[in-house]
Amino acid sequence: MFELIFLGTSSSAPSVHRGLSAHIIMHRHYRFLLDCGEGTQRQILQSGLGFKRLDKVLLTHSHLDHILGLGGLLSTLSRWENLEKIDIFGGRATLARVASLIYQVVFPGARPPIDMNLITLQPGPVLEDDKFVLSAFPVQHRGPDCFGFVFVEKTRRPFLADKAAALNVPFGPERAQLVRGETVTLADGRTIHPDDLLGDPIPGTKYVHIGDVGRADTLVEICRDADALVIEATYTEEEAEMAAAFGHMTAAKAARLARDANVKTLILTHISRRYFERDIRQEAQAIFPNTYVARDFDHFQISRDGVTRLKKPAADNQVF
Question: Are residues 170 and 34 part of one domain?
Answer without folding.
Answer: no
